[in-house]
Write a structure and sequence with these properties.
It contains two helices and five strands; from the N terminus they run βββββαα. With 66 residues, the chain is α+β, with helices and mostly antiparallel strands. The protein has a five-stranded antiparallel β-sheet with strand order 1-2-5-4-3, covered by helices on one side. A hairpin with a 4-residue loop joins strand 1 and strand 2. The two termini are 16 Å apart.
Length: 66
Protein backbone atom coordinates (compact mmCIF):
# COMPACT_ATOMS: atom_id res chain seq x y z
CA UNK A 1 0.00 0.00 0.00
CA UNK A 2 1.23 3.47 -0.90
CA UNK A 3 -0.20 6.86 0.00
CA UNK A 4 0.37 10.22 -1.63
CA UNK A 5 -0.99 13.61 -0.63
CA UNK A 6 -0.99 16.41 -3.20
CA UNK A 7 -1.23 19.62 -1.24
CA UNK A 8 -1.78 21.77 -4.35
CA UNK A 9 -5.03 20.01 -5.24
CA UNK A 10 -5.76 18.88 -1.66
CA UNK A 11 -6.17 15.22 -2.57
CA UNK A 12 -5.07 12.02 -0.88
CA UNK A 13 -4.52 8.92 -3.01
CA UNK A 14 -4.19 5.48 -1.45
CA UNK A 15 -2.91 2.78 -3.81
CA UNK A 16 -3.86 -0.69 -2.55
CA UNK A 17 -2.50 -2.85 -5.38
CA UNK A 18 -0.28 -2.48 -8.43
CA UNK A 19 -2.74 -3.85 -10.96
CA UNK A 20 -3.93 -1.60 -13.78
CA UNK A 21 -6.87 0.71 -13.15
CA UNK A 22 -9.60 0.07 -15.73
CA UNK A 23 -12.49 1.96 -14.19
CA UNK A 24 -13.12 4.66 -11.60
CA UNK A 25 -16.31 5.49 -9.77
CA UNK A 26 -17.18 8.41 -7.52
CA UNK A 27 -19.06 6.61 -4.75
CA UNK A 28 -19.73 9.74 -2.68
CA UNK A 29 -18.94 13.35 -3.46
CA UNK A 30 -15.15 13.62 -3.48
CA UNK A 31 -14.52 9.89 -2.87
CA UNK A 32 -13.34 8.01 -5.95
CA UNK A 33 -12.61 4.29 -6.10
CA UNK A 34 -10.35 2.81 -8.78
CA UNK A 35 -11.04 -0.74 -9.94
CA UNK A 36 -8.96 -3.31 -11.82
CA UNK A 37 -10.19 -5.76 -14.48
CA UNK A 38 -11.41 -8.14 -11.74
CA UNK A 39 -13.58 -5.36 -10.28
CA UNK A 40 -11.38 -5.17 -7.18
CA UNK A 41 -10.67 -1.81 -5.54
CA UNK A 42 -7.03 -0.94 -6.19
CA UNK A 43 -7.06 2.76 -5.30
CA UNK A 44 -8.95 5.33 -3.28
CA UNK A 45 -8.86 9.06 -3.92
CA UNK A 46 -10.14 11.53 -1.34
CA UNK A 47 -10.66 15.06 -2.64
CA UNK A 48 -10.88 18.18 -0.47
CA UNK A 49 -9.04 16.43 2.35
CA UNK A 50 -8.63 19.61 4.41
CA UNK A 51 -12.41 19.80 4.66
CA UNK A 52 -12.69 16.18 5.80
CA UNK A 53 -10.00 15.83 8.48
CA UNK A 54 -8.81 17.94 11.36
CA UNK A 55 -5.73 20.14 10.98
CA UNK A 56 -3.93 17.95 13.51
CA UNK A 57 -4.65 14.77 11.55
CA UNK A 58 -3.59 16.44 8.30
CA UNK A 59 -0.28 17.49 9.89
CA UNK A 60 0.33 13.94 11.11
CA UNK A 61 -0.39 12.62 7.62
CA UNK A 62 2.07 15.07 6.07
CA UNK A 63 4.77 13.99 8.53
CA UNK A 64 4.04 10.33 7.85
CA UNK A 65 4.30 10.79 4.09
CA UNK A 66 7.43 13.00 4.19
Amino acid sequence: MRMRYDEKVDALYIRLADSKVVESEEVKPGIVLDFNARNQVVGIEVLDLKRRVSKRDLQQLKVLLA
